[in-house]
Design goal:
single chain; alpha/beta; Aspartate Aminotransferase, domain 1; Aspartate Aminotransferase, domain 2; 2 domains; seven-stranded mixed beta sheet; three-stranded antiparallel beta sheet; 13 helices; 12 strands; 40% helix; binds pyridoxal-5'-phosphate
């Protein structure tokens, strides 16, 4: 039967497609350390469940398509800490940050249009864009430079008459890079020069280390006409399954258009919205504690990974990811091999190949992403296994090529 080109062109999740190999390893009795996926192991704060328990209505109804007003008000209060004067009307509750990014791309770009992304980028941007037949045009950030935000001239080289916006996450998934206020301002000014939208995905906003203070694109008041801020509670409160995100802008025209899309999917999940009202009563102490935990984990991973001969990795300053360059020929092959052919005392480590986080063909073949979503002892063990795996993988490859040369 006929299937659309759209879905056939869509790439499978680069992380999830290797899961069957992990499942098979587990069936063989191998313990797999999962550093491949951004599912935090930290508990969802109890206040989420308390608010739901208190809820007495007997019907799980739709809510307003833009979300519960009380939750939107709570978000406005929370965003005011980041210098944003927002009304509840300027905040739309979405089904995770994923829906907010999809809405953002859909509202600014038509099929065939282009959005510039900072590469490597959150892999599912590919999926959202290809569903909308929008082309992602990459501007590359480099491991050697700590995946710093590329210079404006790199962006300018990619701007065409079809470019509609610039999209990136800050702090970055998959690199953990944190872009500074000056970086963001220069992108906003560039966007003004070329009349583009700037879509900033701030899902990891609070997870910044080494004395950095969380901030938001929302504080640049003079640029609000072209800013779309995307947010989510998935990572901040370990609420991945709650599916609560936000789409935020002060551009009234955009809000009206996005409301049409929101209405067509009726409502974000009602019960999660009730619990999320509770989550937004938590204060700085919560974020401090969690950030400190991730900072510790980052340090452990960085120390262990630095022991790998030939690794290229600068200490990232945010999120809970680290992208590293390894002396390997093919990251996807390597990740698979770690699951099918390698273990240390019946344990192995699964990471994400970075190939799927690039739009550029062939890029990421010698890079992986590590999500430090386990406690420190497990991380130490997992990184050690990874180090031994890299050594062994290269030995096996050398032997294979010797055999090929002699035959
Ligand atoms: C940068 C970034 N944006 C958006 C998302 C989407 O998350 P959700 O839809 O769970 O809010 C993720 C999830 O990993 C992410 O890392």
């Amino acid at each position: 039967m006929f299937l659309s080109n759209r879905v056939q062109r869509m790439q499978a999740s680069p992380i999830r497609k290797l899961i069957p190999y992990a499942d098979q390893a587990k069936k063989r009795g191998i313990k797999v350390y999962h550093l491949n996926i951004g599912q935090p192991d930290i508990e969802t704060p109890p206040v989420f469940f308390e608010y739901i328990k208190k809820y007495s209505n007997k019907i799980i109804s739709y809510t307003n398509s833009a979300g519960l007003y009380e939750l939107r008000e709570k978000f406005a209060e929370y965003y005011s800490k980041y210098g944003a004067e927002l009304s509840a009307e300027e905040i739309m509750i979405t089904v995770g940050g994923s829906e907010a990014v999809t809405f953002a791309i859909a509202v600014v770009a038509d099929p065939g249009d282009e959005i510039i992304v900072v590469e490597p980028f959150y892999a599912n941007y590919n999926g959202f864009a290809s569903l909308l037949n929008v082309n992602l045009v990459p501007v590359v950030s480099k491991a050697e430079k700590g995946y710093a935000l590329p210079e404006n001239k790199e962006f300018e080289l990619k701007i065409t008459s079809r470019t509609k916006g610039i999209l990136f996450s800050n702090p970055s998934n998959p690199t953990g890079a944190v872009y500074s206020k000056q970086d963001i301002l220069r992108i906003l000014e560039l966007a003004r020069k070329y009349d583009l939208y700037v879509i900033v995905d701030e899902v990891y906003r609070e997870f910044v280390f080494d004395g950095l203070k969380p901030f938001s694109v929302m504080e640049f008041k003079d640029h609000w006409d072209r800013i779309i801020m995307v947010d989510s509670l998935s990572k901040r409160f370990s609420l991945c399954g709650g599916r609560i995100g936000t789409f935020v802008t002060k551009n009234k025209e955009i809000l009206d258009m996005v409301m049409k899309m929101a209405q067509s999917r009726l409502s974000p999940p009602m019960i999660s919205q009730i619990g999320s009202i509770g989550l937004l009563t938590l204060d700085e102490r919560y974020f401090k504690e969690i950030s400190e935990e991730y900072r510790k984990r980052r340090d452990v991973v960085f120390e262990e990974i630095s022991k790998i001969e030939g690794v290229v990795c600068k200490k990232p300053k945010g999120a809970f990811y680290m992208s590293v360059k390894l002396p390997i020929d093919n990251s996807e092959k390597f990740v698979k091999w770690m699951l099918t052919d390698f273990n240390v005392n019946n344990s192995t480590t699964m990471v994400a190949p970075l190939t799927g986080f690039y739009a550029t063909e062939g890029a990421g073949n010698d890079e992986i992403r590590i999500a430090y979503v386990l406690e420190t002892d497990s991380l130490k063990r997992a990184c050690n296994i990874l180090r031994l795996g890299v050594q062994e993988y290269n030995k096996v490859r050398e032997k294979e090529s010797e055999v090929q040369e002699t035959t």
